[in-house]
Amino acid sequence: FDRPPSSMRKIVLATNIAESSITIDDVVYVVDCGKAKETSYDALNKLACLLPSWISKASAHQRRGRAGRVQPGVCYRLYPRMIYDAMAQYQLPEILRTPLQELCLNIKSLQLGGIGSFLAKALQPPDPLSVQ
């Protein structure tokens, strides 16, 4: 992420991983579309898929925080205030919104103990009925 010549503006396109994983010192402007692709369950086709969905308020705050680390910055949000107001405070963890079959098979194949007891140790464990 080298600094561009003074006659040029650097543009960085980023996924939601940039919300908290990287810092680019010279970012002055952030353009936030308010969307991210999330893994969710398609009950009709019985499979997990990536679908665009609205981010959480916490994600919006993180995105805004990418600008202005070293100098004043601006965040342009491309969604209305009523969408922001309707956003969840935090994103629901993936373990609570996707099917657990693959995870359960991995736990079993790695011999990490009982699936239910292993998943019960998660910060936000899934419903025991989802595990069975």
Q: Care to describe what's here?
A:
It is a single chain. This protein has about 130 residues and is of the alpha+beta class. It folds into two domains: about 1-90, P-loop containing nucleotide triphosphate hydrolases (Rossmann fold); about 95-130, no CATH class. The chain is built from six helices and four strands. The strands form two sheets. The protein has a two-stranded parallel ribbon. Strands 2-3 form a two-stranded antiparallel sheet. β2 (about 35-40) and β3 form a beta hairpin. The longest helix is centred in the last third of the chain and has 9 residues, at about 100-110. The mean pLDDT is about 90.
Features:
two-stranded antiparallel sheet, single chain, ATP-binding, two-stranded parallel ribbon, Rossmann fold, alpha+beta, 132 residues, nucleotide-binding, 2 domains
